[in-house]
Amino acid sequence: MAVAPTISVKNPVAVTRVRRRVLPLMMGLSLAAPVGLALPQRSALAAPQVPASAGLAAQSFVAAAVAKSGPAVVTLETQRTVRTAHGSGLPNGLLMDPFFQRFFGLQGSAAPRARVERGQGSGVIFDGQGLVLTNAHVVENTDRVMVGLPDGRRVSGQVVGQDSVTDLAVVKLQGGGLWPTAPLGDSDRLRVGDWAIAVGNPFGLENTVTLGIVSNLNRNVSQLGIQGKRLDLIQTDAAINPGNSGGPLLNSAGEVVGINTLVRSGPGAGLGFAIPINRAKTIALQLVNQGRASHPMVGIGLSTIPASMPGGTVPPGAVVRSVMPGGPGALAGLQVNDVIVSVGGQAVRNPAEVVTAIDRSGVGQPLILSVRRQGRQLPVTVRPVEMRALKMP
Questions:
Q1: Would you place residue 361 in the very low, low, confident or very high pLDDT band (cuts 50, 70, 90)?
Q2: Does the annotation mark 245 as catalytic?
């Protein structure tokens, strides 16, 4: 049987020279490299040393942003009592019929039943006095609100005020203590493509963080098929799930630029929306000082200007489609088919910008609209009134 020859290394210098010739070839280097060139050790080739300072690059700006506002993001646990007239599922008229009662042996109508519904949402502490900004639908018709802080504290909360029109509410934390607060940013400075960080408590999972971008701005809530609201929303692709409602939308600096309010499910799922913080601050201040929010209106219905041809560019402005009799618009002389091109000296591109400009003007303050009518342009001065003062005919 043949025996494999044994190779004895008697000249380590020669072996080293062979390695120095072969290794450059394996590395794709020229064989003309000097024989005496110092090469890195084999272990260094497999795992190159990384400078300690390079570890800083692995830290995300998101972590720094969340560290700034995260301690002020709270969980709101709500409780409400829901009463039902009866539990049989039968119409009241049928239950009250004497013949029906005798036939089935019923003793009058069934006693009302009460059940407790529990809900959960998010909020953010924006004032050192313990004021929490959240969504109105989170605390609507609640009997009890408990607020959980990231540091483990659980305190009772009192609803200071809520506004269903903008879906905003303010809750006051009960008891004393030092409350963490989140810095508020400027939503008017947002640009499409800016980073967007959503923080909240979806499905009860506290301080969940998701990252995306600002997908668009000034999305009117009516575009989502929601009526009875006056909102121009920030659109984001940062994941917003049930329980995120009322939590903050942060910019890359960790400042609150929006209050998360809804997410689209079904077709087009993955679209999240937030109320701009500049709008939310105005409403919150009114809720704290007055207990309710003010919504100026002029009593007109608006639509976009039709394009000159199918698929063409929609001209800027807003067409008056209806005028409420006796409303501020009618008293000022606005007419159907008038085209509003500017409000308060600022050009408007669509009906949403007209509504926003009226909102910012305040109740009772004169506001000049520039109107195009039958080829002429003329100023119209209106005085918006409170929404509650307008009565539909």
A1: confident
A2: yes
